[in-house]
Task: structure prediction
Amino acid sequence: MPNQPQSNSSLLARSLAAVWHPCSQMKHYENFPLLPVARGSGVWLYDGDNKRYLDAVSSWWVNLFGHCNPRINAAISDQLGKLEHVMLAGFTHEPVVQLSERLCELAPRGLGHCFYASDGASATEIALKMSAHYWRNSGKPDKMQFISLENSYHGETLGALSVTDVALFRDAYGALIRQQATVPSPDWRKAAAGESAEAYALRCADALELHLQQHHAQLAAFIIEPLVQGAAGMAMYHPAYLRRARQLCDEYEVHLIADEIAVGMGRTGTMFACEQATEPSGSTLMQEAKGITPDFLCLSKGITGGYLPLSVVMTRDEIYQAFYRDEMAGGFLHSHSYTGNPLACRAALATLDIFAQDNVLALNRVKAAYMNEVSIPLREHRAVRNWRNTGMVWAFEVESPHGDFARRCFALALEHELLLRPIGNTIYFMPPYIISEPEMDMLASRTLRIVNELG
Result:
C-alpha cells in the first residue's frame, strides 16, 4: 500500500528512480545517499529505522517551532474542515484577511498592503515587477534596472536570478537573464585589518551612493538581504548599512526592497531584521522603534512555521495607489493559482499566535546567549575562523585539508545525529526556536567532534 512505512533502502531506491531532487547533482547520491525521513517531532527528524537527527538547519531555514507542532497541526486541521482553497481573484476569505491585518500591525510602519504568492523566488519576482511597474505608472518608464549586493541570493527563477550574485546558480542560465549591477557587500569578513564592522559597512554604503549618483535615472530598486546574506555563507553585517541605504534610496528616488525571506519572522533577533536599523543614539532591541521601512518587504520560509508554501510582499500605500485606476493595464498583472491559500494562511496565523503567546523573541535572546556560551570550545578551535552570530543564526568557517568539505561534513554529521548542510567550508546553525538547552549542548559538542576530525 502506498501509505505503508517503507524501509530506508526501499524508499531510497524508489526516490532515486522517480524524483529529481532540487539543488543537487543527482550522480553524487551514488556516494552520498539521500536521508530517508519517515517522521518528525520537535527539533528531530527520524528515518525509517527510527534513527534520529537534530534538524540544525530548520529544513532549509523554514521550521520555526518544531516538526509536527500540535498548535499548527490543530489550526490546519480546523481549516481543512471549512475551506481548503479558493481563488483570490474576485474572492476573499477570513484567513487571508486576518493574516494581512496582523502582518500590517507587526511590520515596519507604513507597510499596509499584502500581495501573496507561494515561495520566496516568487516574492522577489513580485517586488521587482511591482517596483518597475510603479515607475512606469508614475511617468518614469526609464527606471527599469535593479542593483543588489555582491554575493546576494534572491531566488532561482529568471527574474530573481538577475539580482542573484552566486555564480553556481546564475551562470548556467546567464544567456536567459537580464544581468544587473552589484555593489560591494558590507560582509564584515571583508573589512580591513583593524576596521570595525560599522566602519566597513559605511564604507560600502559610500560605494552604493556613488552607484546611485551615476545610475539613479535608470534604477527602479535596490534589493538587499538585511543583516545576513544566507547563500553567501551567512555573511553578516552592521545595521548601519541599512540605515544609510534607506537614506540614499530616498535621496535618489530608488525603491528599497528588503528580502527577509530567510531572515524575517524572528530569525535575526527581532521579528523583522529591518527593525534593527535604528538610529545609533542608544537604540536597543528592547525599544519600540521599528527601524527603517523598506518600500517592499518580502517574507516566506518561516511565515507558516515551515508547514506550507506561502510568501507575501508588503508595500506602502503610495505604491498601492499608483496601480489603483480604471484601466486594467495600470493594475498589477501578476497571479498564482494558490495565492493566499487558506490552509497556508491558517498555518501562518498559528505561527504568529505562538510568537505572541510564548514571548518567543525574548526567549530566543536567552537561548542565543546560552548557545554562545556552550560553543566557546568550538569557537576557540584552531581550525575555526570568523565565528559570528545574529539572533538565532550562527556561522563559522573551518580550515580543512579535506576536499569536498561540505559533503564530508554532512555525512559525518549524520553519524553524530546532526543534520548540518555546510555552504562550502562554512558551517552554520539555524535551529528551530524550540531547541532546548540539552539539545544546544549536543549540537555544540558534536559539531566540535566533527571539526576535530575535518579541521
